[in-house]
Amino acid sequence: MILRKLTPNHPDIPALKKLFEEAFPENERPMSMDVILTYLDQIPCDLLGVYPDENPDDFVGFFFGIKGEACVYGVYYATSPKLRSTGIGSKAFKAILEYYDDIPFWFSYESTFEESDNAEQRERRRKFYLKNGFHETGWFTKLNGTEFIIASSKEEFDKEAFEKFMTAMVANTTGASLPELYRRD
Hints:
CATH topology: Aminopeptidase
Shape: globular
CATH architecture: 3-Layer(aba) Sandwich
Distance between the termini: 40 Å
Largest sheet: 7 strands, mixed
CATH superfamily: Gcn5-related N-acetyltransferase (GNAT)
Structural class: alpha+beta
Number of helices: 5
Strand content: 25-35%
Mean pLDDT: 88
Strand order of the largest sheet: 1-2-3-4-5-7-6
CATH class: Alpha Beta
Number of domains: 1
């Protein structure tokens, strides 16, 4: 897999915007891709395009992550719907983890504990992250009324480091509010 840093003027941005709209329901898109593109010059973050080795000009997915002092928070990751369940998502995700080397990597995905219209999709996503080396931390948060599971690339989860990172991220992001972490009992 080839990962390329994308800029707002990259020729694959229209395809990325289309995939963003297709892959994430509205409740998971509190900001538009146009807003995310403005962040590229404002906060420490990466927008990476995913391209297969055998066809390096074929845009097949993207990753958007925000970098902290010693961590990465994956905000969005998607691959082309026509390529899902072919193994390309796992290959791309492995390349993304390698890109960030041994830095703790956090992700959140829709909770499978809530009733929802997309329960099967949520369970597929959960299994994908667990299969690709992530560990559920036991911590949850809500975004636009939807519960999310916090997962980590490391078995040990540093809640204080996560909260410090989120506080800094929110301080640098217009219109964002600090998500509350909680456990389900």
